[in-house]
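Consider what follows.

. . .
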Amino acid sequence: MKLVILKERDQSTMNITACIHKLGLATLWRLPPESAHNLAVWALKSGLVPESKTQMQRKLAEGVFKTAELPGVGPLAHPICLAAGFDKNAETAQNLHKLGFSTAEYGTVTPQPQAGNMKPRLFRLKEQRALINRMGFNNSGINQFVRNVAAAKRRDKMKIGINVGKNKVTLQEKSVDDYLFCLDKTKSLADYFVANISSPNTQGLRDLGSQTFLSDLENGIDPEQLKKTYIKIDPDRPKQNFVKLIEMISKTNFAGIILSNTSATAYPEKGGLSGAPLMSTSNRSLEVAYEVHQGSMPTIASGGVLSGRDVLEKIMRGADAVQIYTAMVYRGAGVVDLLLEELWLAMRNAGFQSLAEARGALVRS
């Protein structure tokens, strides 16, 4: 009888939490995009968002969603992670674990504070289930970022990553110094690290995908930190250029790649496109990358993921874990639980009993 009562209480709590998440999503959609984003960060920072209770607890315990070993990260209980961009200043580091992500990536952070590009700079494309942003690495700078992370009590439930970039005013030939400075300041604060050379909203950033930059970055990072540092790549490079970049990274001691960032667009607004329209482009990038590394390079996928089926599509193209951001905008704070339920259904329909079976199924030769 006691067990039944406890189960009923847990179900009631999950129902209440789901209602709160739905109400929160409806409220945010009444606000302009960047105001909604700032309110969401504030609510999490203030502890106002209830902790998610997943319906898939038994499957998690059975290891159905367990990922492959990722340097600095896993294996993880499930593959759904939060991409950089949601919390650039690590303001939610105390409470973000409540949403159920396996990992959360803070940043992109730069050495000095910067305001980013002029507003408006974040746009919803509701019919396409997409966003366009041209934020421009707006953040409070590395010193405030470090204070925020250091002040938060670490939660064993969730690994954290730190995503670093360059200041807009930094000379191109000095770019590596910005990355090394941020990585050094944060080397004891995270499980993994990311060098972002993929945003379309900072002039010259994508040009850093060169042998010179990668070599300078690799040689400048602490050897132990290097093993936990990923390179984040864009999906817009011509195939020959993209293949060359994957080959270069595969010959280094970096942990792996995050693929991909947003896709550059000029219509209906200039910026980086994320959400459903990015899915096919980012999937093709995963396929091409796999052709090069043949499963040897740890890969965190991002781009276009809005459903559990989308998560499986990434895994089947060789991803070890999957990051989301736009999905949270469209589906709310309870998105992890929704994706896990859909992922399990998609796995069953495809005949997979575990993610290990699914990984690379579409691209293995």
Notes: The CA atoms of residues 28 and 35 lie 8 Å apart. The chain is about 40% helix and 15% strand.
